[in-house]
């Protein structure tokens, strides 16, 4: 590293996750106290870097934010500087405005930038690095589906929220002898469903990586009834899919039946159980509750470690890298290893094997 | 009271609610310890009374159940003895099987019966009383919409669950500058939405008692944006309705647009906000999470007081009555006063007035 | 009311309680939005009024504080303007500095002042009112021992914290067959112990209003053992007292035994149980955890209602009054009715009777 | 493995920890469903093995226990079969009764035994194994101070309880400008204090591994005051020690001052801060709350994995081993590696380094 670091930038991108504020706090504290740096926070993801929405952040700005969900910097899923929407002659077009990013970096005399984000934001971070920017990354996704790190912060909190929901559904399932279906996040990877299913005592777990057969699900429900357990709990990742393609149900529209997809996969599963068994079934879709709330102790610690490590990464000049949890250690990996390919649940994953040994069904 | 009470029956009916087990425990402890009675628990609501599913309940059976959601007796929304479904010549018919109830009461030598339930179960209790059974009632509904009592147990817990959900949605709303919509229970009465809206800092509360104008909702969202509050939180009772009748949206079905109701009212409101503003909007439907979980301290105390009072009511021979909270006192009212008409939110209710003074919009 | 109200002052006094911020928020929102007033917040209780530590508070200052414990205005148990400590010739003396309060009220052109506090702060508020200040009060104490209101905000949250602690102690008590003692707040009144004892399923409740006999406590523990319940849960208010005066234990100090009071009453009770039975006993002192944390939904609503009502009280010119909960209604009472005498638990209180019917022992 | 396994035994020993029930459930489910074994549960730790308190455990016995704290088998810190207390001629003596263990194992035809416990219980397990018993171990301690495993179950829950306590103390510390001291478990190792201190935003962390200088603690408190942060949060492990030996304070006893140790180290630190600064200080001792309550999702998953793995270990004939977490994998290590030496916090531990970079003081 030839040039001394004096000022660093910071932004949060993509969907919000519990622990973002803990990273921000750790970055600011470490940068200011430990290294005497100035920290510039860019607001609303890459949007703030494009539109020059920025402010200096001192220790007072991060006081009290450790236990709070969300991000005080704001975030967005939009505003990719390499693919930015503009109106041209009444038509929407996408253009490269990444030069503006470099201008604003220059205006604020930022020597290096920390990007906290998931696959999308870290991909942009990599592109910016390839174009010459000093960037380091911090991996974030509640889905835990990012490659090159054992765990992302936000996942433990989302898992906790889903597990608490299963606890609540248990009592109502038992009391009413019902089949309760909980749909959780996980469009491409089933980590939340898998882990919450084990932690919450589910009987069936349906994940995108293991296409299911509804008849096998029903078989499990009926087996339990036969052994006098008159209720069942099913966790479904939003991206779970039946083996025989997507499910539609017939629905009366204007006097004739039409094939319609009724809501998410949770609704579909519940509907089929009611149709094919004598059980009542109810579905709960957790949705954005999984992104909210105070981060768990685990996530606060992981996020704090990531924040400290990201500043150290800059001081070491390891640009183009992302902090990463490997076992119990924080290391770093090239951004290129982290993005582009989601980390799916392997069929021989230890949680899958644990679930099978407990008798949990994956609907196959 | 001419005949000495020696054995009492107990059942829980209708949808489950946090606190049912607390009532059961208080009934058994008071009956056994205080009065030396025998308690017979009938299982699965009135179904157990019809099909003679019953067991004696001692103190050991209720040990440890105070903090648990649900009901150890089981419950159901079905099995009305005066309107019981039977198959006759391949057709479903409804018949009066209430004689079986009296037979089973007689078999177990039950001198008086405690029915814990909502409007439906207490209506049946009243009919049974009119037909000669010694019945007392305990009011239960998470919706708090039962007449003749200031509060039902289960409501405070449901309110707490909804408020915690609002806390979680707040952080994501702020971070993303979104409009977050939370749909809560309340088909005919908006108590949960109203109370949770105040406790959770909502900007808009939509309840069945106040039909709303979506343009007024949007006006509120835009006002906030104009004063630099870029997010809004909306609580919608599931039974909330627009002033101009039910809302349908146009949806492409087989090549042409058809009017379709997309899910619940929460989805409708979120969809309209996205259509009519530049804001992103997301909806969460809490559903059965509101019925589950460990009861709050408030609900445990109220449920315990109700259980103790119900046994006292029997010892006083006040059959045909239900225990009731009036201010801070437990009294009793005739079952007839309690059922038949739901307690809706009056427009001059103190919480409505409080909300208005805080600037919360009801969409009117 | 002859003079138009344009500016109001606000302070929080005494020990902090969950819900203080909810009152502050409601006062500011109602005052600013509803009536177009200016709100001046005085910091750190009456200290800020004496030392002129004040700032204008707008809606942005109270954004997001509803779910947060503590008070953004700061508070203290000290700084009574009628009894203010000053150093005179090396000696500490107490003097009347209330004129400074009037000066600062005048400097900020405050037309009326809202004091949120317990017995101590409201007594000062009354004195200031008698000396000519336009004051209204909002009752606050987690102990719920204030006269002239059915409930103070903060109590439900403290009760919830104590109940959750009892839930946690239950599992360890059962697993180890121990007697677990929980000491909760309540120096002069046993409301928290009483309510938490019922909500948390305690076997013994010891409160200041009912001096206890340790032999009766032990009798209860042994009775449970005899009926095969090998653990017991005891809740003790910090102000609970044995019938035969305070308890000391003999302790070896410098070679001879001396009478020493070992910690609080919880420790004393646990020690005596270990000495007089064959049971292990452990004590937990909740302490300041009971003052902290996010207020419950109940407390947020009550605090919000109080805040709105306090502003209305000012607009109605009802100075020298305090808002008060009567049943489910908010009314107002003269400050003189509220202070001076703590509201203790009457022996015929409904919770006491409920506890007795459940078989809970008060150690008598 | 020469002999087929048909019946296995199971016991829980030492202090209870959240997750014990999750292990029990996983053992029973895996043993019964997966391998068709019979499971015998011995009650109250090694006591049940000595006194033949045992019962067969089927799937119904473990239904619903996953989210519950404690252990349905009971546990105790006493009853070491190699050092068992008996009365001989009015004197207490310790004798070896391990033969009784072998008798009872034989009576129940148990082929192998699973011992879930901490250092003490696993040491006994190793002795029994050396004497010829087929034993496997599962590591349990909320203190996380067991060698040969990265994490024990129960720790994450204890950490969560301590972190939530710090969150609650924060609001009261801020409101009152106080120094709040939280004493947590950790007699010999400071893992809970260290992790909770980071997760809860503490300013000072005092652990047994780093003897502290109270003047350095006070220096930190004063530094914060000087930079306008008028409160501080201190976490103290119960085994933390000052550099200059144990702390006593002078106390008036019978007219003269005597050196007395006032309660735990938390009290000592709080007292010294009040004596040596102008700050008010309050101490909270979490005590057994840290052992109680529903296990976190993390602990439920870890405990479940351990339970499944312990049965697999038996089926593989790996007696004398204990299941162990290494990074994200469950492996096994000889019991001898696990016991005898506690795992203390190394001074170059990553959490220690993280804390230092954040500016947290260890009082040195």
TrEMBL record, chains A, B, C, D:
Domain Phosphofructokinase: 7-314
InterPro entries the record matches: ATP_PFK (IPR022953), ATP_PFK_prok-type (IPR012003), Phosphofructokinase_CS (IPR015912), Phosphofructokinase_dom (IPR000023), Phosphofructokinase_III (IPR012829), PKF_sf (IPR035966)
Catalysed conversion reaction: beta-D-fructose 6-phosphate + ATP = beta-D-fructose 1,6-bisphosphate + ADP + H(+)
Site, Important for substrate specificity: residue positions: 120
Binding site for Mg(2+): 119
Molecular function terms, GO-annotated: 6-phosphofructokinase activity; AMP binding; ATP binding; diphosphate-fructose-6-phosphate 1-phosphotransferase activity; fructose-6-phosphate binding; identical protein binding; metal ion binding; monosaccharide binding
Plastid as UniProt keyword: no
Keyword Nucleotide-binding part of the UniProt annotation: yes
Active site per database record: 143
Amino acids binding substrate: 141-143, 178, 185-187, 238, 282, 288-291
GO cellular component: 6-phosphofructokinase complex
Pathway recorded for this protein: Carbohydrate degradation; glycolysis; D-glyceraldehyde 3-phosphate and glycerone phosphate from D-glucose: step 3/4
GO BP, one annotated term: canonical glycolysis
Cellular localisation: Cytoplasm
Record's protein name: ATP-dependent 6-phosphofructokinase
Organism this protein belongs to: Desulfocucumis palustris
């Amino acid at each position: 590293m030839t040039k001394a670091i004096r000022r660093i930038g910071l932004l949060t991108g993509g969907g919000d996750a519990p622990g973002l504020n803990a990273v921000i706090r750790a970055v600011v504290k470490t940068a200011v106290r430990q290294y005497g740096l100035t920290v510039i926070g860019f607001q609303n993801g890459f949007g703030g870097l494009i539109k020059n929405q920025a402010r200096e952040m001192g220790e007072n700005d991060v006081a009290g934010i450790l236990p709070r969900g969300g991000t005080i910097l704001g975030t967005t899923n939009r505003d990719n500087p390499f693919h930015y929407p503009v109106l041209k002659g009444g038509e929407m077009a996408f253009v490269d405005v990444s030069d503006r990013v470099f201008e604003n970096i220059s205006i604020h005399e930022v020597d290096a930038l920390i990007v906290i984000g998931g696959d999308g934001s870290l991909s942009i971070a990599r592109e910016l690095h390839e174009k010459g920017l000093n960037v380091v990354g911090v991996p974030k996704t509640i889905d835990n589906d990012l490659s090159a790190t054992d765990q992302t912060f936000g996942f433990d909190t989302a898992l906790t929220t889903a597990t608490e929901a299963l606890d609540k559904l248990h009592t109502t399932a038992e009391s009413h002898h019902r089949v309760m279906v909980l749909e959780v996040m996980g469009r491409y990877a089933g980590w939340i469903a898998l882990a919450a299913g084990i932690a919450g005592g589910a009987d069936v777990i349906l994940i995108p990586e293991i296409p299911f057969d509804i008849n096998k699900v029903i078989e499990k429900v009926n087996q339990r009834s036969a052994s006098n357990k008159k209720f069942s709990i099913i966790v479904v990742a939003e991206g779970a899919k039946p083996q025989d393609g997507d499910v539609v149900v017939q629905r009366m529209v204007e006097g004739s039946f039409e094939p319609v997809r009724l809501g998410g996969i949770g609704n579909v599963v519940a509907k089929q159980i009611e149709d094919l068994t004598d059980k009542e079934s109810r579905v709960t879709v957790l949705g954005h509750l999984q992104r909210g709330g105070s981060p768990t102790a685990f996530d606060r610690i992981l996020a704090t470690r990531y924040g400290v490590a990201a500043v150290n990464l800059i001081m070491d000049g390891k640009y183009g890298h992302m902090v990463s949890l490997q076992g119990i250690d924080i290391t770093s990996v090239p951004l290129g290893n982290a993005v582009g390919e989601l980390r799916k649940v392997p069929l021989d994953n230890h949680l899958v094997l644990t679930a099978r040994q407990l008798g949990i069904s994956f609907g196959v």
